[in-house]
Amino acid sequence: MGSASLTFCPVSHEICQSSSIGAEVNFPDETDTLNLDALSENDKGSLRKVLFNNQVIVIRNRMDIDPATFLHLTEVFDTTFTYILSAGGKSVSNCNNIISAYRAGRIPRAPQVSIIGSGRFDDYEGIDKLEVTHLIQNGYIRPYRWHMDTPFSERLPGEVTILHGVQVPQMPDQKLKFPDGTEKKIAANAMAFSSGARAFELLSNEEKEFALNTTVTYAPHAYEYIRQCKATDNGLFISCIGRDTNRRPVRVVLG
């Protein structure tokens, strides 16, 4: 399906497997940049529709994109978008921020855009010396904690998160080990997404009833609250307690 300018197709079954999420967007122009000015209002409406119908969309082979373009692309999907950082302005320079702890950088002319990855880079986007890290142990890579990009404090979460692969590592596939001992090869720099709708389908009727009648209240900046706690191998749960910071506790309220 598509508009007069854009076309869309589902990602392959090999990629989406049983998640039922993911679609690719194909632009008609022959350039390898991302020109949002060339999009009509119908194009933008089609982009929004395909995102909300598929949860994840992929735009391939777009390089040399000005970081500020991602802010404008966010506005295409989220009409309530603001230029305030999700955790507030202090996170730009706060060395104790969890993004900073993993040596992630922020682009000076577009501080809403974070840089994550692994390696050392000189003179990148106005940053003289940039060093970012990612953990690999014994040939295996593990998920960071599963999370939503929201601070749960002061403002509502944004509707979209945009990721741009600038440099894909040229290295062998990495291995992801699951708690039951099974392993899966994944490409370096891979990003995993999970479908909440699919997870709900797999619940028993009793579990669905519990989920539909439960309200979860998170602590403000919950990611910071548990940053010192060890997560389980799949990144879904906290395997140790007592190392959380002195913040308002997370509560579960039955509704």
From TrEMBL:
It comes from Geosmithia morbida. It comes from the Eukaryota. Residues 23-225 form the TauD/TfdA-like domain. This is Alpha-ketoglutarate dependent xanthine dioxygenase. Its cofactor is Fe(2+). Pfam families: TauD. InterPro entries: TauD-like_sf (IPR042098), TauD/TfdA-like (IPR003819), TfdA_dioxygenase (IPR051178). GO terms for molecular function: dioxygenase activity; metal ion binding.
